[in-house]
Amino acid sequence: MTITPEFRPAPGDLEEHEFLVNMGPQHPSTHGVLRVILRVDGERLVDAIPDIGFLHRCFEKVAEGWTYQQVVPLTDRLDYVSAMTNELAYVMAVEKLAGIEVPERAQWLRVLVAELQRIASHLVWFGTFALDLGATTPFLYAIREREHILDLFEALCGARLTYSYMRIGGVRGDLPPGFVGKTREFLKLMPSRLREYENLFMKNRIFENRTKGIGRVTAEEAVAYGASGPTLRGSGVDWDLRRDEPYAAYDRFEFGVPVGQSGDVYDRAVCRFKEMYESLKIIEQVLDGLPEGDVRAKVPRVLKPPAGDVYTRVESPRGEVGVYLVSDGGPKPYRVKWRAPSFAHLRLLPVMAKGHMVADIVAIIGSIDIILGEVDR
Amino acid sequence: MIDVQYAVVLGVLLFGVGLFGALRSTNAVRILMCIELMLNAVNLNFVAFARMLPQGSAAGQVFAIFVMAVAAAEAAVGLAIILQVVRQRGVAHVDRINLLKG
Amino acid sequence: MSILDRLVLFLPTLGFFVLGTVILVSAWMVGQVRRITHAAFFMVLAFTGVAGVFVLLGADFLAGSQVLVYVGAIAVMFLFAIMVSDLKELSGPAAGSGPGGSGSRAPEGDGEAAAARTAARAWVLLAGLVAVAFAGIVLAAVAKAGLPEVSVPAASGEPTTVLIGRELFTKFLVPFEVASVVLLAALVGAIVLAAREDKDRGLGEEADSGAGAAGRRNGGVTA
Amino acid sequence: MHNLTSLLTGFWSFICGLWVTLVNTVRPPVTFQYPEKYYVPLEGFRGYPALVVDPETGETKCNGCQACARACPLGVIHIETAQREDKKRYPVEWRLEFGRCMVCNLCVEACPFGALTMSPEYEFAEYRPEDLVYTLGNLKLPPEGFEVRRLDGSTVRTGLAGGGRG
Amino acid sequence: MPADLGAFLQGVFDQVHLWASQSPFWSALFTLGWGIVKVVLVLGFIIVNVLVLVWLERKFSGRVQSRLGPMRVGRPHGWAQTIADMIKLLGKEDIVPRAADKALFVIAPVVIFTATMLVYVVVPMGPRAIVSDLNIGVLYLAAAASFTVISVLMAGWGSSSKWSLLGALRGAAMLVSYEVPMVLAVMGVVLLSGTLSTNAIVKSQSGLWYILVQPIGFLVFLAALFAELNRVPFDLAEAESELVSGFNIEYSGLRFAFFFLAEYANLLALSAIAVTLYFGGWQGPFLPPFVWFMLKTYGFIILVMWIRWTLPRVRVDQLLEFGWKVLLPAALVNLAVTGVYVLLT
């Protein structure tokens, strides 16, 4: 028997002791508007069926009606926790399509904001994950530290969530006065705070008990389901686009890629958490060696890339964001296809959830760090 | 002042009500509940009779404690059996649990 | 002694009668009320009432144990069993049905249904007769026995805890040990019987630690 | 034995966590009471697109070229112009449907005359949706501008007549 | 001056008592009146303290989390916030879900509040400030706690919601399995003091607090206390991020206020019990006993809150495993060692 979102159990459909529970769309730990239909036996999950689409906003279709430049702010709204990397993926696709050379300084700035964004996004993940596991305080701490990054972004581009910072051919503006100093302050502060988080939460025995051995995904499964990012690396697959397929200016920097082993919630969480340290390293290198120069290439006001198609992908905090762009030579994209990492990860949910308990599905959803904005699009 | 005999009468009545409930219902869990009530009635009588013993003896109360222990054991095992029967046969009606009849 | 004083002296008796009524009514409801969860909660009420009578009879320690064991353990165990299994069979109406099938389950023919209903009614009548006969006989015996008239609360020298403790660990030491063995056996037996077979799950030991199984197990232990 | 050590390390991990919360208890709060203490935005904060006023004439710099309206992805800008005696065009009506605006800054960048800028205001709440349609009257920046912060801690005035960041 | 006033009141009380004991009627009336006064005093005590506690919890959590906490209603520091919240709750629509088992749904909040109230009967707040010094005090406490389980089950089942049923089953399993180690841990104290009466336990601690001689017992008691209080790390019955709000999910308005009130009243009661059993109760130098009692109780409450705002939540199977495999053996060992000690001395 398959359970679809419209499913209403008739007598005899479910085993004795089993019942269906609707988790969401209104539920504190569904990270947006996700509905998961839980088929449970007492507290034990027999099956978990995600039902998506509550946040569908026709992104791909809307993008077809807008010019290339106008789509940039729209991509902010997909993965709203990590808007910078979305923009980056999109503008890289357009640049590739139109053959635009991006100035070196702009490339470095892109890396800078992408890594700041990665830390900000992981902080949100850390906080909400802790909240999912019942600890309230880490959330407030993470949000407090994220505020530093949001301040930097506000000074950089005037917005705190939907930045609209990337431009085709570069970025919108150069660093504002005081940005480098403030970022260095943040770099100095952050490692100690991360160690606090470790003491408070990541090394906590209850946290370890709650996450070790839960939601296990083997490396083969992860690859087969198209997992990426920390979810893939948590399963032991050493794959990071920033290192293995460098884009922007990533090939200029030294950084490590944390890889887990068992593919359970704990390993995914630790991978994500350690990535913050690596991002700090990258930011430091960017600040040390930021080249001078333009931040934006000359791009015609009405951009008409030649007909053709491209696919670009970047490593967002959640995984691989891929953009497939088709141009018919006109000023508007013919087709925009968005490959959202959260969508692939959400498909893993039933695989991960089977046999665990109701409390675990909350931890599992937290560990794959889904953003429904990019799942539903 | 309460006469201890009142308590004895109350015990008897409670036992009667429990007996009636146990006899007339067919739901195994309910029968078990009624048996618990009957055991309670017994306890009531023990405590009441303990009052008629000479001062300084609590034999009746001690017996009541034993009854409680037995009642708890009986409830635990009884419920476990009922749950197992329900799980395997899907019925909790005693008259339909007639495995021995074939 | 004024009339008011007499009235006051009558108060404990009045309390006793009120409690007795509560006990009897809720005990009656345990057998009659339609939903089995309600029956369980009425059982809790009856237990609590009995504890109250124990207090009136000067057995405070026993009253505490009564609440702890019956309300805190046995009733919770019942409720758990009912709620965890959540079966129509278990929670459906049970009263008013006799042997040979309950009246609520509709058999094929009309005549058969009527026959079943008659049988059920006869069964209820029989049960009532048995219960009334029993109560009558015992009451008669009590009346005949001429029990000594003892008023409570009587002035007792020592707290009941001391009394019970002394008796339990001297005169009744062997029964006490036997009772503990009985409890242990019941505990093991209940776990063995109630634990679910989890072969198909492949999770083994881990699987029966869910709320349901654990609750049943706990009930056994606290008892 | 293993269990005992595990119990003790677990207990120690709780102590570590308790220490962290204790340390944070003595740190000053990062929140403040908002209406009593106004959050001063950073320079360049994007509130809503506003019209820059020419300090000499007191008029807007906009000549109604529609570049912003064309750049707007959502089409929330509507401009009607008229011609003055000196052949220069000026807007008689400048409407911004702010309820639909997503504050993407594209209009500001599209303006060839620097007539648009982002106002650093952020209090937009209105009781009626039609109040969210801004017109020429309330789109003009006040001549005294706004006070904004900079990352280095200094405060500056922005949105002054004649200024405007691209 | 307060001591004089106390002596004066005591004198008046004794005179009235003496006069009333002349006839059964007046004696009964006196008992009744005195009982009513006690109940009103306790109720007032509970409500005032709950208001303070809710505010304190929010302020404290704000402090821990680098926030301000309530500031708006009542200055300074939003002291009137809880009062405003209570008024808001009272003004809310009273919703009984259509599918709910109405009787159970309506009775459950009353039962839980009554069960909480019952605990206060044996809380000694001073040498004579105790509602009734029962000689089965500790047993009475355990018995009173049983009703909490019943009411949680009532609320969970009565709501006819799957989430609340899950919450109730979790809560009941937790309460039942943590009551055993709790009672066993307390038995260590009972063995040492040789009495079940709470006031006598306090009096026996004039030299040495029992936390110093019963550290393991205290830790077991503390862990079980979190389960009884339904607090993080053992807040499984409510488990906001899992079961939304657990057994009280369907409650609103006044009925929810009852649960809320009961939760904090329980926090206060169990903290007072902990202070009574392990921290010497109202005993202390210089200050009046009641002040000592309140100081210790609030200190303990702060500890409980501090732990709550630090730890994540455990899972239900781990919780039960912890209860049965760690707490119960620890409590038994503690009891056995204490027993041997008492036997030897």
> If helices are DSSP runs of H or I spanning 4 or more residues, what is the number of helices of chain B?
3
Helices and strands of chain A: which structural class? alpha+beta
Shape of chain A: globular
CATH T-level fold name of chain B: Helix Hairpins
Written as H for each helix and E for each strand, in order along the chain, the element string of chain B is EHHH
Q: State the major sheet of chain A.
A: 3 strands, antiparallel
CATH architecture call of chain B: Orthogonal Bundle
The CATH class label of chain B is Mainly Alpha
Mean pLDDT of chain A: 86
Oligomer: heteropentamer
Beta-strand fraction estimate of chain A: 5-15%
Record field, number of beta strands of chain B: 1
Distance separating the two termini of chain A: 29 Å
CATH homology-level superfamily of chain A: Cytochrome-c3 Hydrogenase, chain B
- Domain count of chain A: the total is 1
User: Termini distance of chain B?
Assistant: 58 Å
Helix content percent band of chain A: 40-55%
List the helices and strands and how they pair.
The complex is a heteropentamer of chains A (377), B (102), C (223), D (166) and E (345).
Chain B: E1 2-3, H1 4-24, H2 28-50, H3 59-89
Helix pairs in contact in B: 1-2, 2-3
Chain D: H1 2-25, E1 48-51, H2 67-71, E2 77-83, E3 89-97, H3 106-110, E4 116-119, E5 133-134, H4 136-139, E6 146-149, E7 155-158
Antiparallel strand pairs in D: 1-4, 2-3, 3-5, 6-7
Chain E: H1 2-20, H2 24-64, H3 81-91, H4 102-119, H5 137-158, H6 162-193, H7 198-203, H8 210-213, H9 215-229, H10 240-243, H11 253-278, H12 289-308, H13 316-344
Describe this structure in words.
The complex is a heteropentamer of chains A (377), B (102), C (223), D (166) and E (345). With 377 residues, chain A is an alpha+beta fold. Chain A has helices at residues 59-64, 68-76, 83-98, 104-132, 137-157, 179-202, 205-211, 219-224, 229-234, 241-244, 265-289, 341-353, 358-368, 372-376; strands at residues 18-23, 35-41, 44-51, 166-167, 170-171, 308-316, 319-327, 335-339. Chain A has a 3-stranded antiparallel beta sheet with strand order 1-2-3. In chain A, strands 6-7-8 form a 3-stranded antiparallel beta sheet. In chain A, β7 and β8 form a beta hairpin. In chain A, α2 (68-76) runs antiparallel to α3 and α4 (104-132) runs antiparallel to α13 (358-368). In chain B, α1 (4-24) runs antiparallel to α2 (28-50) and α2 (28-50) packs antiparallel against α3 (59-89). Chain B has helices at residues 4-24, 28-50, 59-89, and one strand spanning 2-3. In chain B, 74% of the residues lie in helices and 2% in strands. Chain D is built from 4 helices and 7 strands; from the N terminus they run αβαββαββαββ. In chain D, β2 and β3 (89-97) form a beta hairpin. In chain D, 31% of the residues are buried. The chains are: A alpha+beta (377), B mainly alpha (102), C mainly alpha (223), D alpha+beta (166), E mainly alpha (345). The interface between A and D is large, with 38 and 33 residues.
Put the structure in a nutshell.
The complex is a heteropentamer of chains A (377), B (102), C (223), D (166) and E (345). Chain B is an all-alpha fold.
